[in-house]
Amino acid sequence: MTVKRLRGSQLCKLREQWFHEHPLCVLCLKADRITAATELDHIVPLHKHGKDDDSNRQGLCRECHLKKSKQERGHTYIRRVTVGVDGWPES
What we know:
By secondary structure, this protein is α+β, with helices and mostly antiparallel strands. It has helices spanning 8-21, 26-30, 62-72, and strands at residues 39-42, 57-60, 82-83, 89-90.
């Protein structure tokens, strides 16, 4: 069974409201970090029969969303290291 996804202006409104009410990454908070949520994630992916409603949504930062998505697909997540202008890795 395919779940109909929100798209377009409806999705934009939903994201704006969600991040206004839930501004921080859920997984970072569990790890005692404070990071802004920028990705609206389905806790149980739609392709695994998750619902497209508020009970199955969470806000994640980009890093946590990438890690979670790769793990769901059975891939290994390797964090990219960025280098600052001083030549040292940034955390």
